[in-house]
Specification:
Strand content: 15-25%
Radius of gyration: 18 Å
Low-confidence stretches: none
Shape: globular
Mean pLDDT: 96
Bound molecules: NADPH dihydro-nicotinamide-adenine-dinucleotide phosphate
Largest sheet: 6 strands, mixed
CATH class of the largest domain: Alpha Beta
Order of helices and strands: EHEHEHEHEEHEHEHEHEEHEHH
Structural class: alpha/beta
């Protein structure tokens, strides 16, 4: 019997997760299908109940359900519990679901090895994705500065998930902080409104925008022009998907192959 997997969200039709996972399922000759599942806010509990009658193996969860998904599960990893959000659910038994958060390891995999003693990381934005990123970096003892439009959210995030080496402030001060940073991570969704941050010269420092495609293209184009080494969010998207795949099937899939498929799809949509 073909097993079912999927991604739950709203909106969901844009999601690259079916492309990533169905590619890996085909590559590894696994008898399962991965679907995009449109579920409105507040309805994840009933959606999981419905899926239990469909030979479900597990689901990814995206906006706006990551917080509710954790609450809907009967058990969770320490990472998901601490971050306060889940993006990977595994069906255990009727009424029993396991919650994990693979955004954190996915982000670290995409960032690559860094020297905690040398790097100074500036994070822009303090929304849902920043929570997983702050958790991942501080877990590896990497000092960070967190700037957000709503300063109280940056403060709360730094207090809940940071260490005594985590500082916070207002995003309007980014130019002041950027000079002493070696890695800048843009987790804001400002690209959706066509806004970009004007950057000083990068001198080959890293500018990692976790968005991708049309949303990130103007910001990344500007950063590259100013001499930053740029990275978009596709590598993080693929890596978090790979950790989900590993938790369902016990093996790491081919990240490069999936990244190439996603890059081709994004290029076609630009
Ligand atoms: P949230 O809605 O939780 O957070 C959005 C953040 O952006 C908040 O900090 C918000 O500030 C800030 N923001 C929004 N508009 C502006 C603006 N005009 N100026 C300054 N700051 C602004 O979103 P997520 O954290 O879930 O997602 C953020 C981005 O990351 C999205 O583009 C999403 O697609 C991408 N993403 C990529 C992933 C990947 O795997 N590559 C995974 C998850 C997300 P405030 O708090 O003041 O409202």
């Amino acid at each position: 019997m073909t097993k079912l997997l999927g991604v739950i969200g709203d909106p969901i039709s844009h999601s690259l997760s079916p492309l990533i996972h169905n590619g890996w399922l085909r590559d590894n000759r696994i008898d399962a299908a991965y679907e995009a599942m449109h579920v409105s806010a507040g309805e994840i509990g009933s959606a999981l109940e419905t899926l239990e009658s469909r030979d479900i193996l597990g689901v990814n969860v995206t906006l706006p359900h990551k917080h509710d998904a954790l609450a809907a599960c009967t058990e969770a990893t320490l990472a998901a519990a601490k971050i306060g959000a889940a993006n990977t659910l595994t069906f255990k038994a009727p009424g029993e679901w396991h919650a994990d958060n693979t955004d954190a390891p996915g982000f670290m995999q995409a960032l690559g090895a860094i020297d905690a003693k040398k790097e100074r990381v500036l994070i822009l934005g303090a929304g849902g994705s920043a929570r997983a990123i702050v958790f991942a970096l501080t877990n590896d003892c990497i000092p960070i500065t967190l700037l957000n439009r709503t300063v109280s959210k940056a403060e709360a995030l730094a207090r809940e998930l940071g260490t005594d080496q985590t500082s916070f402030g207002d995003i309007t001060q980014y130019k002041e902080y950027i000079e002493s940073s070696t890695i800048v991570i843009n987790t804001t969704s400002m690209g959706y409104d066509g806004n970009i941050l004007e950057l000083p010269a990068g001198h080959k420092r890293t500018f990692f925008d976790i968005s991708y495609g049309k949303v990130a293209a103007p910001q990344l184009g500007h950063a590259a022009e100013r001499g930053w080494q740029v990275k978009d969010g596709l590598s993080m998207l693929v890596a978090q998907a790979a950790f989900s795949f590993k938790s369902w099937f016990g093996m790491m899939p081919d990240l490069d192959k999936a990244l190439q498929r996603c890059q081709a799809a994004v290029k076609a949509a630009l």
